[in-house]
Amino acid sequence: MQKLIFISGSLLLILLFLSLPCFVQAQGLSSGIYKFNNILDRLFDEMLPLCERLIGVGRAVGGLGALFYIGLRVWRHIARAEPVDFFPLLRPFALGMAIMLFPFVIKIMNGALKPIEEATRAMTGDALDAVWYNIDQQEQAIKQDAPPGTGPSAPDMGKYEQPDGSNEGIFSGLQNVFTWFNIKSFIKVFIMEIVQILYTAVGLCINTIRTFYLIILAILGPIVFALSIFDGFQNSLSSWFARYINVWMWLPVANIFGGITSKILANLMTMGPGFFGSAVYIIFMIISIVGYTTVPNVAGYIIQASGRDTLLHKINNMTRAGGKVAMAAIGKL
Fold first, then answer.
1. Which of 58, 68, 108, 183 could bond 226 through an S-S bridge, CB–CB 3.0 to 4.6 Å?
2. Where does the sequence pass through the membrane (predicted)?
């Protein structure tokens, strides 16, 4: 029974190994990534008109907020017998105009941020294509080249597999199968295929979640603009802009990370033609997969969701602290 289970499991692994390259090839996977990213870009453009349905609601909420905003300030100036300052009262009108032209506001923001994405995407293009090409060549070499000492079986090989002289059974050729594929190489190639799929899946997952967040922020943008007119919700406007830019920066940061890993792989290819089948390559791919999960946190270093630049804020605090220490030392002198 255990022997039958072992044979069945071995056949299942062999069939999975043989069918996996049919579904995933390096060059096909590379082209599929670009196609999937283009689909996500088109999805955002197709979903953007949905924000127009909330423009009317945003105008109504914004009009009510403008009434309270202007009325409170005018009444405050009249109560203090002060001249009315009209310049601060233009804020509700500016936000109302932005609500009415909200699709153009999104297009202007995307147009300003798009060059960053294109510049970072160009950083990874050539190196990534070279890596996928070399991976494909290594996979083909591993699958086509037989291990030394293997070859066509002799015509009378069956009598050695069946010493009693009986006919060959359905599992009698398993010896040739395991000899041909070399169990160690089989497991290594299988793991290599898995880590390549996971490496690609993590990058696509980041871009998919990023597009999902951007669509939600764009659709609910008119409501955010309208609520920011009310006192107490004014910070929501700067927070919305900061979150939109922060989420948008996920893809450029992922592109930069992909460019770094691709460049490292391109340099490691000089180690020899067998690098992509070694354990070092598999370990590096696992490290890259873990690194991709830190992309949202790294994007937070550029611009924080609260609208404050984290790195700049820390540098300013360190500079001020250093200045105070220096001034205290000078005072003691």
1. 58
2. 54-72, 93-113, 186-206, 213-233, 245-266, 278-303
